[in-house]
Amino acid sequence: LAAGLMILARCTTGRTARRAPDWQVMVVIATSFGIGTALETTGAASLVAGGLIGLAKGDPWGTLALVFVATSLLTSFATNNVAAVLVFPIAVQAAAAIGVSPLPFIITVMIGASAEFATPIGYQTNLMVYNVGGYRFTDFVRVGLPLNVIVGMVTILVVPLVWHL
């Protein structure tokens, strides 16, 4: 609606509006929804959730931390949208399996997918400044990895206190 109003108000032309969407990103997001649904339907989400719970020895805080790590790692090499869509059903299944509220797990996925500083790949703004700023991949790892760790620690400490497990 907003794009249509912009064309009607002559803020932009129809030609410019048609060129504006990044169709590659749109296709990746659209296919990730299908993959997320497939993960849930086939039981793969339950399998991965069981693996996370096993690694955390059934501890809700440990499982929450592993959900953050999984989301953050996936976001580092895919887009944040893909990571969120793929880890969401896993997080919900993990919460259900250990009998806790899924809300802290969902919030953790949202933060883990959005707080991507360790690579230029995972977040659009990182890609925007990567070439223009003359950065190297290792610059992102060197500065961004500690930021990811800090955000992860704060998330794991604060989220369960605000949105109770």
Task: State which percent range the strand residues make up.
Answer: under 5%
Largest β sheet strand count, sense and barrel closure: none
What is the H/E order? HHHHHHHHH
Overall 3D geometry?
Answer: globular
Low-confidence stretches: none
Alpha-beta content class: mainly alpha
Q: Determine the fraction of residues in helical runs and give it as a percent range.
A: over 70%
What's the tally of helices?
Answer: 9
- The end-to-end distance, rounded to whole angstroms, is 39 Å
Mean pLDDT: 83
The gyration radius over C-alpha positions equals 18 Å
Q: How many β-strands, per DSSP? A: 0
Write up this protein:
The structure is a single chain. This protein is mainly α. The chain has helices at 2-8, 14-19, 23-42, 44-55, 60-77, 80-98, 103-114, 124-132, 137-162. Helix 4 packs across helix 6 and helix 5 (60-77) packs antiparallel against helix 6. The model has no long low-confidence stretch (mean pLDDT 83). The chain has nine helices and no strands.
